[in-house]
Amino acid sequence: MLNSTRPIGFVPVTDLSKAREFYAGTLGFDLEDESPFAVVVRCGTTMIRATKVEEFTPQPFTVLGWQVDDIDEAVDTLRAQEVEFLFFYGLDQSSHGVWTTPEGDRVAWFKDPFGNTLSLSQFV
């Protein structure tokens, strides 16, 4: 039943103005709605609701990610927007923070202003 529907991504945020600035401004997603409860953006056909919470502890894993065709170009574009990419001990990452898996897929991680870990992935 749900296979033919469109998913909605949820990400917790503590400041809706910062969420709008990051998700609509820095990442360039289309702003669809804003209320006292959430900032809603659209990335392609996927809706992302940056939902206001009073407090939360960011999780130690990726909560939202995007598949890209050219990860180097995507990383360079985001770095130009002052997005900082994460480096992890034990992973052999490029100088831009891109890790290549043993299978050849490539992944890079960054955080939103609230500490949520986000990722880019390029699959072979």
TrEMBL record:
Any one Gene Ontology molecular-function term assigned to this protein's record: dioxygenase activity
Keyword terms, alphabetized: Dioxygenase, Oxidoreductase
SUPFAM superfamilies to which the protein is assigned, alphabetical: Glyoxalase/Bleomycin resistance protein/Dihydroxybiphenyl dioxygenase (SSF54593)
UniProt domain VOC: residue ranges: 1-123
Classification via InterPro entries: Glyas_Bleomycin-R_OHBP_Dase, Glyas_Fos-R_dOase_dom, VOC_core
Cited CDD domains: VOC
The name this protein goes by in its record: Catechol 2,3-dioxygenase
